[in-house]
Design brief:
There is one protein chain. It contains 10 helices and 10 strands. The chain has about 280 residues and is of the alpha+beta class. It has a single domain, classed as Alpha-Beta Plaits (2-Layer Sandwich), CATH 3.30.70.100. The strands form 2 sheets. An 8-stranded antiparallel barrel has the order 2-4-3-8-9-7-10-5, surrounded by 5 helices. Strands 1-6 form a two-stranded parallel sheet. It is globular, with a radius of gyration of 18 Å.
Length: about 280
């Protein structure tokens, strides 16, 4: 009998992540971007993957949704197209309407799993426009990023979410984590996390210890996910300002702080005052 299993598609390219906490008076604009979804990015040159995602309250990982936090996860066929997108009207539209904004261009080092039936492969030197040995060079000083996403089986959703507060608290206390945000395609059952780490040891220490390790073991033991993807990336360049994980995690676990974060606590900060994260625009 012939095998009718569809051939697995593998995507590779340069990843662009955009995180935004819109000003409170821009909620309607932001909501329309969510409703339109990837159509917002129609006809962008070189775009081969795109997700427009919401977030948990305060930009965290909880069930309660945020009215102002959003994220874009995109992939481009070449770094030149990625840079053009970062300097183009879509990203600038988010930047101009944000109290907090961060964007980064990243190289995929390794990936495991699938997203919408598609696997991710390492970014090639051709796509970067230069030779890269980042995957085999542990001494590379540029920050690392982790992208995790999962489609949660509806019957397992509540069991999965019981682990969320502990894993978020663990990330809050992880000394090597410099940025983190919880994202979602759909409430409760299609979730994603993006985080930035100062080096490989700090990322692995968080991944393989404590609450996070226990949550992963439970997820695989009890088959929480119908599909999942883990991607390890190297940061090529970044721009903007984002609250540290300790603030986001505390806000999400403390309702009062989260309320302030989601009603535009940074509203008094003008767009012109947004600084380069860590005081630099590129990771080099």
């Amino acid at each position: 009998m012939p095998d009718h299993t569809p051939e697995l598609i593998t995507l590779s390219g340069v990843v662009v992540v955009v995180l935004v906490n819109t000003l409170s008076e821009q909620k309607t604009w932001a909501w329309m971007r969510m409703v339109q979804g990837p159509a917002v990015l129609k006809d962008i040159p070189g775009l081969c993957f795109a997700k427009v995602m919401g977030s948990g309250h305060g930009g965290g990982f909880g069930i309660r949704p945020s009215a102002t936090h959003q994220g874009l996860i995109t992939m481009f066929d070449h770094a030149d197209h990625a840079r053009a997108f970062l300097g183009g009207p879509v990203v600038n539209g988010y930047r101009e309407r944000a109290s907090d904004f961060w964007c980064g261009m990243l190289e995929v080092l390794s990936a495991r799993g699938q997203w919408d039936g598609q696997a991710w492969g390492p970014t090639s030197s051709t796509q970067l426009g230069f030779e890269s040995d980042a995957a085999n060079d542990p001494s590379d000083p540029r920050p690392l990023a982790a992208l995790t996403r999962a489609s949660i089986r509806p019957a397992k959703a509540m069991a999965f979410w019981r682990n969320a507060p502990a894993t978020q608290a663990a990330m809050q206390q992880a000394s090597g984590c410099t940025l983190a945000m919880g994202l979602g395609e759909a409430p409760l059952v299609r979730q994603c996390t993006f985080s930035l780490w100062k080096d490989t040891p700090s990322m692995l220490e968080y991944a393989h210890q404590g609450a996070h390790q226990q949550a992963i073991e439970a997820a695989y033991k009890h088959r929480y996910f119908s599909e999942s993807l883990f991607v390890r990336m190297r940061l090529l360049q970044q721009d903007g300002h984002w609250p540290p994980p300790s603030q986001i995690a505390t806000s999400n676990l403390n309702g009062d702080a989260a309320d302030e974060a989601d009603t535009g606590s940074g509203q008094e900060r003008s767009t012109a005052e947004v600084e380069h994260m860590h005081g630099r625009g590129t990771a080099s």
